[in-house]
Amino acid sequence: MKTKEEKAIIEKKILQEIELTKSSITELKELTSPIAPDCAIGRVSRMDAINNKTINEAALRKAENKLKGLKITLQNIDDQNFGLCARCKNEIPLGRILLLPHSRFCVHCAS
Asked: Cβ of 63: how many Cβ atoms within 10 Å?
């Protein structure tokens, strides 16, 4: 179980990650706007733009899922089982939580 000081550090990290993720989502939404068919770009350039759009859409979905996970983690920070692996119930090290605050699994169970 995490101490109050550790939870305060984790909460601060989660709030920072939420802001960064929201910013990233805003940028990715701009990058995933539709590509107009009448754009005056060559066929290869258009194909490249469509490919980049697809990659950015995948990154956007990943960022939106991360944001959901961060918000859930923030809501559950005061739960009795916070900081315990959802699978094996062993304590997740503070370093891992700070690195991936939305992760519910220890390194062993996540792989």
From this structure: 20
**Could you state, in order of their start, the residue ranges of all structural domains in the chain?**
4-110
Cα 65 from Cα 6, distance rounded (Å): 25
Superfamily the domain 4-110 falls into: DksA, coiled-coil domain (1.20.120.910)
Structure tokens at 93: 């090290």
pLDDT in tens, 20-34: 999 999 999 998 887
**What global pTM score does this model have?**
0.81
63 neighbors 25 (Cβ within 8 angstroms): yes
Q: Which residues fall within 8 angstroms of residue 96, CB to CB, at 6 or more apart?
A: 103, 106, 107
User: If we measure between CA atoms, which residue out of 36, 56, 57, 33 comes closest to residue 46?
Assistant: 36
Residue 50's pLDDT is what?
80
